[in-house]
Every structure is written in structure tokens, then in C-alpha cells.
Design a protein that fits this description.
Strand order of the largest sheet: 1-2-3-4-6-9
Shape: globular
Oligomer: single chain
Mean pLDDT: 97
Low-confidence stretches: none
Helix content: 40-55%
Largest sheet: 6 strands, mixed
Order of helices and strands: EEHEHEEHEEHHHEHEHHHH
Number of helices: 11
Bound molecules: ligand LHQ
Radius of gyration: 19 Å
Structural class: alpha/beta
């Protein structure tokens, strides 16, 4: 599928979606959101078992395109409506997708661009990539799930510092702080993300989806409720073909051949 603001590339069992407005550092427009929704539908329809989200050119994304003709302007713009229409559904969708979603972040990830990346399950960034909570420079509140992700992953002190100062956080520092999975050499970001997606595509996809749900729930509920969730999710995982195959492969001393069910 070739569309104007994103690229969708089907690979062997996994897909890559590239935000593709390199001359505008892949800033999000309403049209890009529409095309992203179609691409994410396609990931599911194609039965993909992992997804890489990245940006074309020298950045991941500079966030909302402040010059987009569909961006609310005027004396009393309703930015909440933009979030409700575009960003909240996007980050909810990424979290709900029943497959691992990997963000490959190079260059700048600013504003909503940073927080869409951080909504992904696994974030791989270049050591010199920059996550910028640019909102403070505009008099805005971090959005696209950023207040949740930053506060939960980093605690209130670092979340508050990043949000109020809009200081860039490098990929190296983000990994050291536990905000992202891994920082790699700048020229290795996409190769590492692609390799991980290819490995995930051969993995126990159903088990991954249930694991994703378990880790997400742990951000929201207490220990006892989480034990109950683990029980329910493990019950489901234990009834998959991949669990049966995993045990069989172990006993037969061979690599498992997971089918994703
Ligand atoms: C851009 C943008 C951009 C348009 C670069 N828009 N054109 C708010 C409201 C409601 C709902 C949703 O969410 C949000 C949250 C947000 O995301 S608000 C936006 C947050 N992002 C920013 O404030 C970042 C603005 N951009 C920058 O500060 C710089 O561009 C950075 C520091 C990212 C990169 O700087 P440079 O490397 O010097 O590149 P540049 O500034 O020359 O940008 C290249 C081009 O991209 C340039 O266009 P031009 O036609 O002049 O070459 C920029 O105007 C354009 N661009 N970000 N967000």
C-alpha cells in the first residue's frame, strides 16, 4: 500500500509502518492519522505477528503538525477534540493490538511524537535520539498518554522535570532511566527493530498478547488483583497450541515451531 503520509510494508509475518513526511519531520496531520488507522487495520487483516513503527528521514516524529489545515486554530480552539478524534484512539489501538509493537526511534521524537513512540510495547532508540516533551514550550499539557507513561515508568520527579522543562532526553538516558527498552548505535536502530520484529513473528503470538495485557494491567491495579489477572491470562495461555508445542519442543530437545495460536 502506498499512501501519501505513511508507508506500509508487509514482511515475512511482520509489518513496518513508516511515518512518511520527512520534510516536516513526520509531524502528524489529520490525514496521517486516517492513513495510520487504515494501516493498523491492515496489520490485523494480514495476520501480522509483530509491527515496527518508525519515521522516514532524520526524525521519528515532531508531533502534531502545528500548521495542518485540520488543526484547530482561533481564539478558543478545541485541542481536546483533536486528542479524542486522533491521538487517544491511536495510542489505545497500539496498546490493544494483540501483537508486539516496536518503536524504532532515531533523531527527534517531540510532543505527541514522543508519546506515541512511548505507547509502543518495546522502544528501541538511537543513543543520540531525543525524546522531547515539547508541550511546555507551547503552554500545553503532555498528551497522547505521555503523562501516564512518564509518571508510571519514571515516577513523578523525572516525569515532572521532563514535562515542565521540555529538556530533551537522549536515547541513552531514556534507556538508563528505564523509559525505553534499549539504546543502540544510531545507525543500527531500524536493523535492530526489524530483527526483533522478525524474531517476534516466529514467537508465541497469543502468549505475547496475553503478556502484553498482564504488564499493562500491572500499571493500573494492585498486587492481589494482578495475581487474579495472571491466573486468568495463564489459563488462556495454557490452552494455546503454542504452549503445547513449547513443552513438546523442550522435551524433545529441539527449537519450538510456534504458530501464533
Ligand atoms: C513542523 C513541526 C511541527 C509543523 C517541525 N509542526 N511543522 C498538541 C495539540 C493537540 C493535539 C495533539 O497534540 C499536541 C501535541 C503536540 O505534539 S504539539 C507539537 C509538539 N512539537 C513541537 O512543538 C516540535 C516543533 N518542532 C521543533 O521544535 C523543531 O522542528 C525540532 C526541534 C523538532 C527540530 O528542529 P530542526 O532540526 O531545526 O528542524 P526544523 O525546525 O527546521 O524542522 C524541519 C521542518 O519541519 C520545518 O519546515 P520547513 O518547511 O521550514 O523546512 C519545520 O517547520 C517542520 N516542522 N516540527 N510540529
Amino acid at each position: 500500500m502506498t499512501v501519501s503520509t505513511i508507508r506500509y510494508e508487509p514482511m515475512a509475518g511482520w509489518a513496518r509502518i513508516t511515518l512518511h513526511r520527512p520534510d516536516k519531520l513526520n509531524a502528524f496531520t489529520a490525514a496521517m492519522h486516517t492513513e495510520l488507522r487504515v494501516a493498523l487495520d491492515r496489520v490485523v487483516a494480514d495476520g501480522m505477528r509483530a509491527l515496527v513503527l518508525t519515521g522516514a528521514g532524520r526524525a521519528f516524529s515532531a508531533g502534531q503538525d502545528l500548521a495542518d489545515r485540520d488543526f484547530p486554530t482561533g481564539e478558543q480552539p478545541d485541542l481536546g477534540a483533536t486528542l479524542e478524534r486522533d491521538y487517544a484512539p491511536l495510542v489505545r489501538r497500539i496498546r490493544a493490538l494483540e501483537l508486539p509493537v516496536i518503536a524504532a526511534v532515531h533523531g527527534v521524537a517531540a510532543g505527541a511524537g514522543a508519546n506515541v513512540a512511548l505507547a509502543c510495547d518495546v522502544v528501541i532508540a538511537g543513543r543520540s535520539a531525543r525524546f522531547v516533551q515539547a508541550f511546555a514550550k507551547l503552554g500545553l499539557v503532555p498528551d497522547a498518554g505521555g503523562t501516564f507513561t512518564l509518571a508510571r515508568h519514571l515516577g513523578p520527579a523525572r516525569a515532572m522535570g521532563l514535562a515542565l522543562t521540555a529538556e530533551p532526553l537522549t536515547g541513552e538516558q531514556a534507556a538508563a532511566w528505564g523509559l525505553i527498552w534499549r539504546a543502540v548505535d544510531d545507525d543500527r536502530v531500524l536493523a535492530e527493530a526489524d530483527a526483533l520484529a522478525a524474531a517476534f513473528a516466529d514467537g508465541p503470538t497469543r502468549g505475547f498478547a496475553l503478556t502484553k495485557r498482564a504488564i499493562q494491567r500491572a500499571q493500573e491495579q494492585g498486587f492481589d488483583a494482578q495475581l487474579d489477572a495472571e491466573r486468568d491470562l495463564q489459563r488462556e495461555a495454557g490452552r494455546t497450541a503454542d504452549y503445547r508445542e513449547g513443552v513438546r519442543a523442550f522435551l524433545e530437545k529441539r527449537a519450538p515451531r510456534f504458530v501464533g495460536r
